[in-house]
UniProtKB/TrEMBL annotation:
Cofactors: a divalent metal cation
Residue numbers annotated as active site: 76
Family: Belongs to the Maf family. YhdE subfamily.
Substrates-to-products reaction catalysed: UTP + H2O = UMP + diphosphate + H(+); dTTP + H2O = dTMP + diphosphate + H(+)
GO biological process: nucleotide metabolic process
Designated name of the protein: dTTP/UTP pyrophosphatase
Annotated PANTHER family: BIFUNCTIONAL DTTP/UTP PYROPHOSPHATASE/METHYLTRANSFERASE PROTEIN-RELATED (PTHR43213), BIFUNCTIONAL DTTP_UTP PYROPHOSPHATASE_METHYLTRANSFERASE PROTEIN-RELATED (PTHR43213:SF5)
Residues carrying the site annotation Important for substrate specificity: 18, 77, 160
Matching Gene3D superfamilies: 3.90.950.10
Amino acid sequence: MTVAPAPNTLVLASASPRRLDLLRQIGIDPASIDPADLDETPLRDELPARHAARLAAEKAALVAARHAGSHVLAADTVVACGRRILPKAETEQQARACLKLLSGRRHRVFGGVALVLPDGRTLDRVVQTAVTFKVLSHEETEDYIASNEWHGKAGGYAIQGRAAALIRWIGGSYSNVVGLPLFEVSNMLRGVGFVPAAAQSPTLS
């Protein structure tokens, strides 16, 4: 006999420890974590905001198909300079290229969020935050590269780590740059009547 999930069951469609920590910061502990595995390559001529929205929606739909009757939350973070989407840095060369581009200039971070409801409906948001780096010296760049904090991070930096000392201005949601816009996510969940269950360790699906 299959037991239907409770209406307050939340599945986080992300393996990011940062997103899990952010949810827990506002008292929400997902019942399970089930990462979505899909190709995140931007489509031809795809703008940064649209890219973030599409990936969040696709991740949510993919995972929701495995968790009927649950709330499924997915997100994607895109760092952009103008229309250019920066990669999630996997090599030192990529990280240096990102930092060189970001040095001394303002860029934008787009957070795409998608929430699939138990009845199959999907709510979505795209949140934009502006961030300005100081002009980076060679030493500052190399020190940050040596920290390895950039690895796997959109735009080659993690604002919640050592990069905080390199950022002179931010306009908008800080948590959005970390990985999840908490104000918008909280309002989305509250707006659909989601009530967090008692804190528990989430299971990995």
